[in-house]
Amino acid sequence: MIGVVDYGAGNLNSILKAFSYLKLPARLVTTSEEISKVERLVIPGVGSFGAALAELRRRNLYSAIIDWLNENRPFLGICLGFQLLFEKSEEAPEENGFSIFPGRCQKIRAAKVPHMGWNLVKIVRNDPLFSELDSAEYFYFVHSYAVFELIDHVLALTEYSSPFASVIKFGRIYGVQFHPEKSGPAGLKLLHNWGTKC
Amino acid sequence: MLTVRIIPCLDVDEGLVVKGVKFRDLKVAGDPVELALKYYQEGADELTFLDVGASIKSRKTMIEVVKKISEKIFIPLTAGGGIKSLDDIRELLLAGADKVSICTAAIENPSLIQEAARTFGSQCIVLSLDAARVNGGWQAFIRGGTYNSGLDAILWAQQAEALGAGEILLNSIDRDGTKQGYDLELIREISEKVRVPVIASGGAGNLEQIYEAIAIGRADAVLLASTLHYGEITIPEIKKYLKGKGVNIR
């Protein structure tokens, strides 16, 4: 069973609908008790760095997620869920992220912000997550912050003003900056791979 | 590189796709779920649904349509038409829309954009701006293009961006359904004066005109309705043509 963390932000239905379409059992998890009963965990996107962390704490989910990550259990962070895996974000400088990956999220400096639309995700290190996908595929992005520091754990890069990390991995912890649940057949394939091969 | 988005628009009235000319003379063009699936399979980058019925019954049908579509189609979905409150927005987002577009209520109650952006995030709030040429400039119209709000369209676009709109869906009333080409000056003026993405709408009749909206108008996305619904141009044709012209396309 996949647990999708409900922290009151974003459209959680779309990721659930994608898992349902793929016939991968998934449910919302709202308490640490419920988190302990699932095998895989997803933190979906949309919202702000500071507000999300505050809400996770308020709902007593924060330490359950930290424990999950420290045990290196199967995890997927999507969009904001990706950003929360880093140490810091310019969006809320006083806050600390889950700090699984070194580095910080910086405000995108480009003519148009947010970075919204389909952009190329170029694989730099192969992984079961990309099984049956091309070495460069288009995925759908919506975000105003990104990680431009190119750390060791990067699996794929995308370019918008300059290259940023679009997929990261440490053990069984994955993060994707784009929205696979909104990225058509390629996105569904990636979610299927994560749910069955990662 | 970010690609230019091709977005089919389905105007829905009581559960059926309709399309008119200059916002009038609506004709039925098909079933929304079937059309949406067809466009998804052909490579549409997003889909937009506008409830033009503006009745309670039409609104309920629209929610059902969004629900059905979001179970089968995994690209961004925008829904709009008759949105007046945060509750209307919440209902559409819960049904499966990723963004909502707001036109009349945004002008009649500008704090709605601000509150909606704060509550749901700017990324899901699209300002729908219906503009027509008036006295050498452009003014923003409301209530399905029937009423001139008196606001300058360019100033309103900038103000809406400041209030938190994450995207602007720019419809030219003068060109809507005419197939005479987009109002390129209007698109360019607004694209250059806001920092959020601009979706060009109204007037597409052939491939060259779509290219112009991007190359001359600097649109970040193009919205298409009648030309697609009547099969005059298909999404694969558009994508092939634009790629041939050097435009970044998925």
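The mean pLDDT of chain A is 94.
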